[in-house]
Amino acid sequence: MQVKIKDVAKHAGVSVTTVSRVLNGERYVKDDLKAKVNDAIQELGYAPSQIARSLVRNKTNLIGVIVPDLTSSFYSTILSSIEDMASANDYNLLVCNISENIDKELKYLNVFQEMRVEGIIIMHEKINEEIRHLIHKINIPVIFSSVKPLDQSFASVIVDDYQASYDATKYLIELGHETIGFIGGDLQDITSGQNRYSGYRNAMADNGKTLVDEHIRFGDYKVRSGYLHMKELLSIERPPTAVFAVSDDMALGAMNCIRDHQLRVPEDISVMGFDGSLLTELVRPTLTSMEQPIQEMGRATMDVLLKQISGKKIPTGDVVLEHRLVIRESCQPRI
Amino acid sequence: MQVKIKDVAKHAGVSVTTVSRVLNGERYVKDDLKAKVNDAIQELGYAPSQIARSLVRNKTNLIGVIVPDLTSSFYSTILSSIEDMASANDYNLLVCNISENIDKELKYLNVFQEMRVEGIIIMHEKINEEIRHLIHKINIPVIFSSVKPLDQSFASVIVDDYQASYDATKYLIELGHETIGFIGGDLQDITSGQNRYSGYRNAMADNGKTLVDEHIRFGDYKVRSGYLHMKELLSIERPPTAVFAVSDDMALGAMNCIRDHQLRVPEDISVMGFDGSLLTELVRPTLTSMEQPIQEMGRATMDVLLKQISGKKIPTGDVVLEHRLVIRESCQPRI
DNA sequence: ATTCGCCGCGAAAACGTTATATCCTTTTCA
DNA sequence: TGAAAAGGATATAACGTTTTCGCGGCGAAT
Question: Is the CB of B15 within 7 Å of strand D?
């Protein structure tokens, strides 16, 4: 059986209350007693039970995180940054990896509620009515990181996806490309689906480029999806000279596909990514990408959440971070 | 304030005990009462407090995980697999990302103890005396995943790193390579440092290849490290015609370096990786690699840990999984 | 007809902490 | 000098559950 505060008290010859005082660094304990208590703690190897502590303090120092895919470079980087911030603020992370598994998400939201987590971070926006309702019901601060759900009542930390996509497309246009393929995300996603698509459309239209239906495809942000859609783009009569994929993973897939068709990036086709994940520097050619400040996104997420938890309501629901075009090797002027 | 079991009891007109019985699916509750209780739970939106439950049951359903680097494809894949198994067995994961930060590890081990986690998973082997001592002291089942520390008293799930490395090297030898560069890990690591190095050495010696000091280098498993060490290998007079890096990340770094020097993989230099991470299929050329069964490793880890937790002591401390050479494009016969 | 055992329920005692109330000292200050 | 304030310690009541125990009622077995 674990040693408990009572044992420490007995061993040190003081009351339980005094031990508790020493543990929590309160005043009103003389140094000699404090020393005796600390010795006892040391000797018995006592570690206070956070469970009991949480119960009486009504505070768990727990934060629940729902990640769509742990193995994705993008999400794991955000998570890593979130973990740093959490640890620095003495919060612990309960993580759930829902790989497209909607049931698991529902289950975990319940677990989070039962565990009395103080806040919840969600990194995807495909929330159905049931989940939306549940989130509202449980009355725990929730923040969306890197995505923004339709429901305006939820806080979120994002970039301006529309503008970022607009800027990325514009850059390709400025390089002289007349035809620019687009590999988008799920149109049911507002943030990364619709907004990025609109940005692309409007940049094209504003600059007098015609939108070709054949050049526009929608994937699921993953490498394989980028590969397959690129294959389709290459199969049409006059493939675009540049391709904008709304995730680095899909951009990588596209690059691989292009190479597998004996074409070169960027000489034959320029490829632009989105996210600024670690991948961009690991692949050859290095990937020009519309970068989200991933690290900062994690930090900002925790920042806002911690404020929500401590009761300081955030004035606006959204924190919009700056996107940044990082030019590497995968895009070049149209010759 | 949260609604509690007492409120449910009052609302349903029964005793607290009865509500608890319904919650835990015990017998001895008549159907009509059960229905009334369930209605009350529904109406009040009651979720039982795991905190209180844990306290009285002396069981938290929590498992602590210490990951060296969340952003690494290898670790995040193991973690993802561990999470799946945990979730399936109604366990929740408390994750800690220690990026070379030894203090953070110490801190988290304490947190794990205070949180009364039922088991701890550690994915690195650089544990110093203090940590070793602490782990022994806290008396919670601990298992090492993908690594095996010197201390034989700890359980672990690994591959036979020596043999895997031996086999990988032998494959390169069989391809006709006379000179094979080696980019190893930290020699202070038993599993991935020493064992893999010995495997390489012995495979070379057993097949009459001379070991060239200049061809042997030691990195830190990361992409950048592979790049830098490959640069050194390329700077010597007669670079090896094949290179074996003991992580896929380093192998990728090596490939990038080779390409940046206007050489081709595998035509000029063959590159062999280790791990079988997702990267292997994402890069071009695809990476031949000595694959660890990453998914299974996560599963086996949880499997053993759960048995340890339930008190069924595991006969042997180690579970050794099968490694497998997966031949892709990055290695070819020496011409 | 009495005992025995299972049902079906509730009251109350845990679980390991912190918070509250209380009590005795000692110090401070008018 | 006396009263109030502050310091130092304790006993006890929470916190929200599960578990133990006990107590009727009822059918079956003795």
Answer: no
